[in-house]
Amino acid sequence: MQIVTLTSDTGLQDYYVAAMKGAILHHMPQATVIDISHNIRPFDVANAAFQLRCCYQDFPKGTIHIVGVDSEPILQGDKICLPCIMVFQGQFFISNDNGFFGSFLDEEHPEELYQFTAIHQQPEMVKFPTKNCFIPLAKKIVDGSPLSSFAQATNSYRRAFMQKPVIEHLTIRGNVIHIDGYGNLITNITKADFNRFGEGIPFTIKYLNKEYFIDVVHETYNQVTMGERVALFNSNDLLEIAINRGANGSTGGANKLFGMRQGDAVHVDFTPKGSKEDIKSLFE
Questions:
Q1: Domain-by-domain residue ranges, the chain?
Q2: Per-residue pLDDT at 249
Q3: Mean pLDDT, rounded, for 194-205
Q4: What pLDDT, in 10s, does the model give residues 148-186?
Q5: Of 45, 162, 181, 219, which residue is most buried, by most CB within 10 angstroms?
Q6: Topology, domain 166-281
Q7: Cα–Cα distance, 122 to 199 (Å, whole number)
């Protein structure tokens, strides 16, 4: 069984997703098509990389991931941008070289990477490239054609800007990098970032203003009462701020209740015994 996933910024209002799925089934009738997301913000390749990075490990080797975000190639000028095929951990990723690969990989490296330079001779592929270029490339992979037989090996790829947390002496300065369908605020602060300060060290998670802070990280949402704010590390070990069952309430999720948006700052201040902040607190 061949699994093909689709990630795009087309939304669900128009016919685009149906056209892409129809093309996949036309070329690969036995394929199983899985949607990652079609609600990526237009041209936001960093968010596409985040979404796929969070779930690709759940798929078996041989899966083909088609990423139709900012998918139109640039074939002339100073910033030529071509479709590429990446092999990573036994899976295939097809995308424009628009920053997706570098953002997805972060500090890791592809096993193989190929540019589809022949698109210069096939201008019909440039229109609706996810359907007319990326899917035919997936078909070649399914047919067992060596990547080198239709694409050119490369070791160069672009990286889209992704906010990284800044770790200082007693502070982690992070940002909200994604707001999910529940309104939960997912940050770029990892569990590993947090744990480097040691176990049992008092901390305060600060966001928006002084009225909103959390000083406990729970394991699950339901460890706090309904409507309470909660911080936890999600299944991808990213620090998340939420309202337990807030999406069911009149105020909505954490993003609406706190007025938070993607990119907003989230800081974690640690106050180990003997720190300046800890001593100062004795006199307040």
A1: 3-153, 166-281
A2: 59
A3: 89
A4: 999 999 999 988 888 899 999 899 999 999 999 899 999
A5: 45
A6: Elongation Factor Tu (Ef-tu); domain 3 (2.40.30)
A7: 58
Q: Structure tokens of 80? A: 């030529």
282 pLDDT higher than 60:
no
Q: How confident is the model at residue 117 (pLDDT cuts 50, 70, 90)?
A: very high
Q: Could you tell me the two tokens for 53?
A: 């990075």
Find the radius of gyration of the CA atoms of the chain.
22
3-state secondary structure of 118: helix
Q: In this structure, what DSSP letter does residue 195 have?
A: H
Structure tokens at 120: 């210069």
Identify each DSSP E strand in the chain by its residue range.
3-8, 32-37, 64-68, 83-88, 91-96, 112-115, 152-153, 166-167, 171-179, 185-190, 203-207, 209-214, 229-233, 238-243, 265-270
Residue 257: pLDDT band by 50, 70, 90 thresholds? confident
At the top level of CATH, which class does the domain 3-153 belong to? Answer: alpha beta
Please state, in angstroms and rounded to a whole number, the distance separating the CA atoms of residues 155 and 110.
8
235-251 per-position pLDDT tens digit: 999 999 999 988 765 56
Q: What SS3 class is residue 57?
A: helix
Using CA atoms, how far residue 96 sits from 24, 120, 133, 202, in Å, is: 18, 14, 10, 45
Check residue 274 and give its pLDDT. 60
Distance of CA 215 to the CA centre of its chain: 27
Q: What is the distance between the alpha carbons of residues 200 and 202, in angstroms, rounded to a whole number?
A: 6
**pLDDT value for 275:** 58
Strands 64-68 and 83-88: what pairing?
A: unpaired
Beta strands 83-88 and 91-96, pairing class: antiparallel
Q: Token digits for 213? A: 């802070």
Three-state secondary structure call for residue 264: coil
